[in-house]
Amino acid sequence: MGEQTAKINNWVLGLTGGIGCGKTAVSNMFEELAITVVDADIIAREVVEPNSEGLNAIIAHFGKDILLPDGTLNRAALRTKIFTNHENKKWLNALLHPLIRKKILADLNNATSPYVVLVAPLLFENNLDRYCNHTLLIDVPTSVQIERTAKRDNTTIEQVKSIITAQMSREDKQQKADDILNNDRDLKLVHAELVVLHKNYLHYALNSKTKSH
């Protein structure tokens, strides 16, 4: 359980898992249960949309050739600039991380469901678990991650392996998570277990509200 460093009114469940573990399928199940989902990856894209503070700062720093013809961010060009230059990477992180964090906190606070789910692939790596009351790891064997991701993203097994290596190990995530949901089986079974977990989270959230009044 993360230590909370910002005031959040809602009870927050942190949802994480490595690439290809099926976080989206599970977060969709939470949405079907009428629980608000805040997705860190979507927010990371929103803070660099056209006319955003983030994109305007990137244009001022790198010039207009960082844009695609339609005015959106050329992510491939940006990746090249930050992978070949440590200072550029440091500058970009210093710009984007606070913007992403601010939007995540605002969205967590604005949620009106009984509790709110924060989905982040790097929940533990980026210390986002400090905003969570409880964490849930979506877990599959590494071999399944590799197979699913290579198929889904039409990429090589070597590329997928290097992404997995860059993330926190499966064992470390299992140690850190409060709950673990096995997603290497029929989705109906995953859904049935998720409904049980959901009932627990409703109970925890209600209890925390009762205690705070």
Please provide a written account of the structure.
The protein starts with 11 loop residues before the first strand and ends with a helix. Helix 6 packs across helix 7. The protein has a five-stranded parallel β-sheet, with helices on both faces. It has two domains: 1-35 and 115-207, P-loop containing nucleotide triphosphate hydrolases (Rossmann fold, 3-Layer(aba) Sandwich), CATH 3.40.50.300; 47-112, 3-Layer(aba) Sandwich (Rossmann fold). It has helices spanning 23-32, 40-46, 53-62, 75-83, 86-110, 142-152, 157-166, 170-176, 187-212, and strands at residues 12-16, 36-39, 116-119, 134-139, 179-182. The chain is α/β, with parallel strands linked by helices and 213 residues long. 54% of the residues lie in helices and 11% in strands. The longest helix has 26 residues, at 187-212. The model has no long low-confidence stretch (mean pLDDT 93). It has nine helices and five strands, in the order βαβααααββαααβα.
Give the structural class.
alpha/beta
| Share of helix, binned | 40-55%
What are the secondary-structure elements, in order, as H or E?
EHEHHHHEEHHHEH
Major sheet: arrangement of strands: 2-3-1-4-5
Kindly state the mean pLDDT as a whole number? 93
Number of domains as seen in the coordinates? 2
- What Rg, in angstroms, do the CA atoms define? 18 Å
Please indicate the percent range of residues in DSSP E strands (runs of 2 or more). Answer: 5-15%
What fold name stands as the CATH topology of the largest domain?
Rossmann fold
> Would you report the number of β strands?
5
Overall 3D form: globular
Biggest pleated-sheet summary: 5 strands, parallel
Overall CATH architecture of the largest domain? 3-Layer(aba) Sandwich
Low-confidence stretches: none
- From the N-terminal CA to the C-terminal CA, the straight-line distance is 22 Å
Q: What's the CATH class label of the largest domain?
A: Alpha Beta
Helix segment tally: 9
CATH evolutionary superfamily of the largest domain: P-loop containing nucleotide triphosphate hydrolases
